[in-house]
Amino acid sequence: AQVCLIRVMVVFALILARQLTMQMMQNPQILAALQERLDGLVGSPSGYMESLPKVVKRRVNALKNLQVKCAHIEAKFYEEVHELERKYAALYQPLFDKRSEIVRAAYEPTDEECEWKPDEEEELTEEMKEKAKVEEEKKDEEKEDPKGIPEFWLTVFKNVDLLSEMLQEHDEPILKHLQDIKVKFSDAGQPMSFTLEFHFEPNDFFTNTVLTKTYKMRSEPDESDPFSFDGPEIMGCTGCTIEWNKGKNITLKTIKKKQKHKGRGTVRTVTKTVPNDSFFNFFSPPEAADFEIGHFIRERIVPRAVLYFTGEAIEDDDDDYDEEGEEADDEVSRLLFVCFYQRYSPACL
Ligand SMILES: *[C@@H]1O[C@H](CO)[C@@H](O)[C@H](O)[C@H]1NC(C)=O
Ligand SMILES: *[C@@H]1O[C@H](CO)[C@@H](O)[C@H](O)[C@H]1NC(C)=O
Question: Is 253 in the pocket of ligand 1 (CB under 6 A)?
């Protein structure tokens, strides 16, 4: 928790520094003065080191070697954190399995399991209760006997900005068939990684029942730059091949293009297939870009899906955003938000 707190403080410091920088950038005088000072400073830290007596320099090297050893011990610490996560993942899993059964109507929860005392704040007046009841009855009449919790994961996706940004209209009919998202950790002794598994019910779009995305992590100091080590980092990711049914590949679109013959000047129309925007491009990743998304799904969405479904988790998250969100501010708040909830993996900085 202390490490986490320090990271949050670092992020705050970075935000402050950034805001300050932006203010200063707008003031040419400050900028010029700053440049002057910077020019004066160039080389001075190393100059100081060089000015030290040889025997002292030698000892500083010893301290650096100790620092490298610290980094290796820290790596061991994070390996154990990973082990602990694996251990606890196994404890959560039966509950997530039950959640999935309820969502996809494989299990009907008992009355006792469905009892839920609302918050006092949520307590409704008699009149509102009556109104809600009438409306609910009306809805029940319209949709006869819905199975499980319809569109559970699709609703989660729509409720979370980070995910809804990737969502296209033509993805929605497919995501209605999404029944579960699972996180699988690499086995002990294997290179550190985690896999997001998207479980689908049989559907018209593709024949896969599970789509996967694996994030490889590294929790070792880099030989060439050991001091930059700050916990496990996501190093890369691999998606999977989606076996689209004929004509259902929504990650492709065909466009008609007019081509003019250079010599004769005649015009012909050709059809070309080009990539189309889709959430499902997530599984054929253009690398790097979606580490944040993978981490977010693992750390937030999967453990607390119901609260994203109801929107409760989103209200909490909104507290982390600035009210008057300029675009730059938004970006920083999101970074802060992501870092804040990362138990480890400070790669986001
Ligand atoms: C390509 O994307 C557009 C807009 O996002 C969508 O309307 C269209 O249906 C997609 N094409 C295919 C073939 O799915
Ligand atoms: C679907 O489209 C992607 C490009 O977005 C392509 O790489 C893939 O091979 C296509 N799959 C099928 C089964 O047509």
Answer: yes
